[in-house]
Write a structure and sequence with these properties.
With 111 residues, the chain is mainly α. It has one domain. It contains four helices and two strands. A two-stranded antiparallel ribbon has the order 1-2.
Length: 111
């Protein structure tokens, strides 16, 4: 026999694991020792809950789209940071060009 507390405990545990999986990202694929936290939209969070807890398969396209968007934003941020902290002018310019490529700026509009 189940009571309402079982469902609440299951939901809280599932939410904890979903948030942990979605928000922890490593700084570089090779290094697992430095963990970062990543914020996600409320829309993505709710879609993840619906997909995993309510088995709502129709949420999967939204989840994929939003996770890809977030990953792209993280990559752009990492390239921009590399540009800002590059020790040499050559490395800085290379990272700047890589960033401009990542954001899709046409080569004719660059300085």
């Amino acid at each position: 026999m189940r009571d309402g507390c079982d469902d609440v405990l299951y939901i809280v545990t599932a939410i904890y694991f979903i948030v942990t999986i979605v928000t922890i990202v490593t700084d570089g694929c090779e290094r697992m020792e430095k963990m970062k936290k990543v914020q996600i939209s409320e829309e993505l969070f709710l879609a993840l809950i619906k997909y995993h807890l309510a088995d709502m398969e129709d949420e999967l396209p939204l989840i994929k789209k939003e996770l890809e968007r977030k990953l792209d934003a993280m990559v752009k941020h990492q390239i921009y940071t590399r540009y800002k902290v590059a020790p040499t002018e050559t490395e800085r310019e290379k990272a700047r060009q890589e960033y401009l490529d990542a954001v899709g700026m046409h080569r004719d509009f660059r300085w």
